[in-house]
Write a structure and sequence with these properties.
mainly alpha; two-stranded antiparallel sheet; 120 residues
């Protein structure tokens, strides 16, 4: 399964918006439970969220439940929150070849934010 950065962003925003910061039952239109669970696993593995690995022998693939965001998760979503900057960053990535790491995407979003604020 391919990593979907739009889904990752949606998931981080949903956990952040949860009143307690705990959002174990995430569902998103256009995404299967398996896709959401796999991306929860990736968020934990990537250090953006805390949670529980609930993968079993009967699982289709890695599965996890998110418990909360990490500091790094909050930092990423702060950089990715603005819809227009998110779209601009995605357009830049698509224009340059289509693939990108999360660290480079965060750096690009941070640079776009600095530019919007008039910072060097």
């Amino acid at each position: 399964m391919k990593r979907d950065l739009d889904l990752i962003r949606k998931m981080l925003l949903a956990v952040e918006e949860a009143p307690s910061g705990y959002a174990p039952d995430l569902e998103f239109e256009g995404y299967t439970d398996a896709q959401v669970s796999y991306h929860a696993y990736l968020l934990i593995d990537g250090g953006l969220a805390r949670g529980a690995d609930v993968t079993s022998h009967g699982s289709e693939g890695p599965e996890a439940i998110l418990e909360s965001l990490t500091w790094e998760g909050h930092e990423f979503i702060d950089a990715a929150r603005d819809d227009s900057r998110w779209q601009k960053a995605k357009n830049i990535v698509a224009e340059k070849g289509g693939g990108i790491t999360l660290d480079i995407l965060k750096s690009l979003l941070t640079n776009l934010t600095k530019s919007a604020l008039g910072l060097p």
